[in-house]
Amino acid sequence: MKIDEQIVEVIPDVLKWRRTMHQNPELSFEEYWTSEYIEQELKKMNFIQVNKPTNTSVLGIIKGNGTGKKIGLRADIDALPIQEEREDIEFKSKKDSVMHACGHDGHAAILLGVAQVLSNNIEKLSGEVYLIFQHAEELPPGGAIEMVNTGLFKDLDFVYAQHLFTPIPTGKIGITNGSITANSDTFDLVIKGRGGHASQPENTVDPVGVGNQILNQFQTIVSRITSPLDSVVISTTNFHAGTAKNIIPDTAVLGGSVRTLSDEVRNLVKEKMEKAVANICKFYDADYDFSFDFGYSSVVNDDDMTNKVREIATELFGDRVFEYPLAMGGEDFSAFSRSIPGTYVWIGAGNSEKELDYPHHHPKFGIDEDSFIDGVKIMVHVAFEMTKK
């Protein structure tokens, strides 16, 4: 039987695996049931060495009959702290306030399907394929860096990942060279003023006013210090102060997200934010605690490898392959792709007619399961082609 015919035959199993994991979601670093389920399913297949690099991740290794390269195929497996609001499915999450709201259940199921096809065609496979079921993509510092630090992947020639993505219609495949996600960092700020009566602001150090000045100054970093071509986002997403309308509070607490592309701009923004906080607080005689925490680095697709993946995808899907623009979201696959040449691809999984076009991390999020065959097909063919000498 031809490879593509085998891919069609494995899809019912992929759906079963996905729906089982969807009903039993687990949060980042807590994927004990999920990793055990994946481990047991892999052990039912032939020619796969299975181990646990960390407490809640799984690695399956398939060694081909021929001499070739060593590559990794990565899927994330964790869920999110969200209460699922979909009532139209029989496999709704069984856990309160936990759901697969980003498609990781689909990613893991697809990689299991790929494992099944590869293990049944060991004689056609060159080199080695590492099946990487990664935990904790959703929660910094993330599971990817923990897996990379094991040293198990240092000899890989290439690593590949993909994301089922509802902003792209099912049937489309987005592939882009260079940066495809942003550095995703966070900041926290506590402004320590001196509270008092609202009618006598001159006798206080108003942390709300100081915070407002800092918030505005942050935006001038975007508009006047960095280039418009640098793709910088500073979003202050929380600002808490006070308990009554006639009291100026002692403190104000701010926090938010910072997105950049290059390390140079990332460090510049951090420096300027620190200076803005220090200078404004000094001007108003306020004290402060400020922290800037580095999160996931930008995922940068390797040009040579990505061009090869694009050739494979175009051979499979024709004009369904297109250039998807840079997204400013975060993705810890960068821990792999910064140390190993890597490619990250978007698999269209949205369908408005089925009401499967809610954004990722939404309580009504869902993925079009018709997209799974594309996900399995490209991964299988990447494995066969990219392991060749």
How would you describe this structure to a colleague?
The structure is a single chain. The chain folds into two domains: 3-181 and 298-386, Aminopeptidase; 183-296, Alpha-Beta Plaits. The longest helix has 21 residues, at 3-23. It has an eight-stranded mixed beta sheet. With 389 residues, it is an alpha/beta fold. The chain has nine helices and 16 strands. It starts with a helix and ends with a helix.
SSE inventory with pairings:
Elements: H1 3-23, H2 32-43, E1 48-51, E2 58-63, E3 66-76, H3 104-119, E4 126-134, H4 143-148, E5 158-169, E6 173-174, E7 178-179, E8 183-192, E9 196-197, H5 207-225, E10 233-241, E11 247-248, E12 251-260, H6 263-283, E13 287-296, E14 300-301, H7 303-317, E15 321-322, H8 334-337, E16 342-350, H9 372-386
Parallel strand pairs: 3-4, 3-5, 5-16, 6-15
Antiparallel strand pairs: 1-2, 2-4, 6-16, 7-14, 8-12, 8-13, 9-11, 10-12
Helix pairs in contact: 1-3, 1-9, 3-9, 5-6, 7-9
CATH fold-level label of the largest domain: Aminopeptidase
Question: What class do helices, strands and sheet pairing give?
Answer: alpha/beta
| Strand order of the biggest β-sheet | 1-2-4-3-5-16-6-15
Mind telling me the C-alpha Rg?
24 Å
- What sequence of helices (H) and strands (E) makes up the elements? HHEEEHEHEEEEEHEEEHEEHEHEH
Number of helices: 9
CATH top level assignment of the largest domain = Alpha Beta
Strand proportion: 25-35%
Structural domain count? 2
Mean pLDDT: 97
Biggest sheet overview: 8 strands, mixed
**End-to-end C-alpha gap:** 25 Å
Shape: elongated
